[in-house]
Design a protein that fits this description.
There is one protein chain. The chain is about 80% helix and about 5% strand. It contains four helices and two strands. A two-stranded antiparallel ribbon has the order 1-2. The longest helix is centred in the N-terminal third of the chain and has 68 residues. It is rod-shaped.
Length: about 150
């Protein structure tokens, strides 16, 4: 079949074959990159909002934890009221962020663990006779704690 083409014809035929293979490989690569782009976009849409919400919740938990020593060291009733009010605002914001986090697509196990930590912040700081009840209270053990024990 190729004898009648001669050397020039066979080289041309080989060139077309190799070029066709290169075009098909390029098409497959473009398709793969488009699919990867779609997957990354879907993952980003699902996971980034919950990650940002939990980061914001972490920041507010840090503010609450930083405010607690100020409540203990307040010397006047006015200072105590001021710091307690600021702590109350931060705790309400923490509760709002936790509620918003529950709405996101984060897994329920992760939200339950975060909620346990928020409860762990709330209980020791709950007021008792006008003073914070900061104590040696510890959060209930989680599944992760039981596995590590």
């Amino acid at each position: 079949m190729f004898e009648c083409l001669g050397v020039h014809g066979r080289l041309l035929f080989a060139f077309f074959g190799i070029s066709t293979f290169a075009v098909l490989a390029t098409d497959a690569a473009v398709y793969a990159f488009l699919e990867i782009g779609d997957v990354v976009e879907r993952v980003t849409e699902r996971r980034v909002p919950s990650a940002l919400a939990s980061l914001e919740l972490s920041r507010h938990a840090e503010r609450v934890a930083a405010t607690a020593p100020a409540v203990l060291t307040s010397t006047s009733k006015a200072k105590h009221s001021e710091v307690s009010a600021a702590l109350g605002v931060e705790m309400r914001r923490l509760e709002e962020l936790l509620a918003a986090l529950k709405v996101t697509t984060l897994t329920t196990a992760a939200v339950a663990e975060i909620e346990t930590a928020v409860i762990g912040l709330r209980l020791p700081l709950s007021p008792s006779n006008g003073a914070p009840a900061i104590s040696s209270w510890r959060r209930p053990p989680t599944d992760r704690d039981r596995k590590n024990a």
